[in-house]
Specification:
Layout (H helix, E strand, L loop, with lengths): L12 E3 L2 E2 L11 E3 L2 H5 L7 H13 L21 H32 L4 H25 L8 H7 L2 E3 L2 H28 L12 H20 L8 H24 L1 H6 L4 H16 L5 E2 L7 H19 L5 H23 L4 E2 H8 L1
Helix pairs in contact: 2-4, 2-7, 3-4, 4-7, 6-7, 6-8, 6-10, 8-10, 8-11, 11-12
């Protein structure tokens, strides 16, 4: 690391070299907690064999020697322009926060379930190991730009959102599966276009995404061990809700951050459409319903929401009294709310019928 390397502008620091965490919004990574006693009481015996196979695979720890910084990191990044460095730091921070959030949740689940449900507790411990490794690797990468996150400070200062266990299972399954598709698509693109690989961390994404895939397989198997979460009308409604929430959050964030994808030679919209389609197809193997992402209005509604979100972001930077700012933002919030309602009530695809046809 070169001492003269410039730090990205407009980045406040808690202390020298330690970045102030990004402010919480509806679209930033959240920290979660749950009802640990209820989770511990879940009976997984109807799918125990699949869960044991995944546990054995997690024990193998295939990537234990993968996340090691090599010579490719031992260089100055001063040749990168300020905008590129700032975009990289934003990507690294968001990714690190998301991975660290997963680590905290899974580690606490492993600790709290150890007595009542040691098998599932071990699985969560193994997954938390992977997430800690990812977060540490990302945070170390930030130090190449003279900034890091204080993960201990994040643990204490972040607000924690309570989700019932069934919501944790829906959300984490989708989070891990969409993470797989995001990482593998960036890796494959840069494998074909190495000239746009501006930083070596992307070379690690092929193995990285396999961790995400194994985690997603665990949550898939866990969900299948709880048939009540997949086989009634409530499950169908909740699956639609979480699919839409995960897809819309990614889409709005990525279109707002399209400049980052541009430096990798990717079009953010095309990339997100591919990731959404693939994640939706993956969810069809588990969820009773999936979203009709090929409906001609689906991505139009997301585009309208993304445009409204851009306007919200712009208004958020204007120095107006809070009440005035809120009323100026209200029409754009209403636009996003209306588009999300349209998408939620759009007729879904029956994934159970799809699986029956395949069988």
């Amino acid at each position: 690391m070169v001492d003269s390397l410039k730090k990205p502008e407009l980045k406040e620091e808690l202390r020298p070299g330690v970045k102030t965490p990004a402010k919480d919004t509806l679209l930033t990574p959240r920290f979660y907690t749950t009802d640990f006693d209820e989770m511990a009481e879940m009976d997984f015996s109807v799918n125990e064999e699949e869960l044991q196979a995944i546990r054995d695979e997690l024990r193998e720890d295939y990537n234990r020697r993968h996340f090691i910084r090599g010579e490719e990191f031992e260089q100055s990044w001063e040749y990168l322009d300020d905008k590129t460095r700032q975009l990289l730091v934003q990507f690294l921070e968001r990714s690190c926060t998301s991975e660290f959030s997963g680590f905290l949740l899974y580690k606490e689940l492993g600790r709290r379930l150890k007595t009542k449900n040691p098998f599932i507790a071990e699985c969560f411990d193994l997954i938390s190991r992977d997430e800690a490794r990812h977060a540490g690797f990302l945070n170390k990468a930030m130090s190449d730009f003279n900034l890091q996150l204080d993960l201990g400070f994040l643990t204490k200062s972040k607000k924690y959102t309570f989700f019932k266990p069934k919501f944790i299972l829906y959300a984490t399954y989708l989070s891990e599966k969409i993470g797989y598709w995001r990482y593998i698509k960036i890796y494959r693109h840069l494998e074909s276009h190495p000239e746009t690989r501006v930083y070596p961390i992307f070379q690690f994404f092929e193995n990285w995404c396999q961790d995400e895939n194994r985690h997603g397989d665990f949550f898939s198997a866990f969900l299948k061990s709880q048939p009540q979460l997949l086989n009634d009308w409530r499950a169908r409604l909740w699956c639609r809700f979480f699919l839409l929430s995960v897809f819309a959050t990614m889409y709005l964030n990525d279109l707002k951050g399209k400049d980052f994808y541009a430096i990798l030679g990717l079009d953010a919209r095309t990339y997100d459409i591919d990731v959404i389609r693939n994640t939706n197809e993956s969810a069809a193997r588990v969820f009773p319903v999936i979203l009709n992402v090929d409906h001609p209005e689906f991505f139009k509604a997301l585009d309208t929401s993304a445009a409204a979100n851009e306007k919200l972001t712009t208004l958020g930077t204007v120095n107006h009294p809070k009440v005035l700012k809120f009323f100026r933002q209200l029409p754009h919030l209403a636009t996003i709310g209306w588009q999300m309602a349209r998408l939620y009530f759009m007729k879904p695809i029956d994934a159970e019928q799809m699986r029956a046809v395949v069988r």
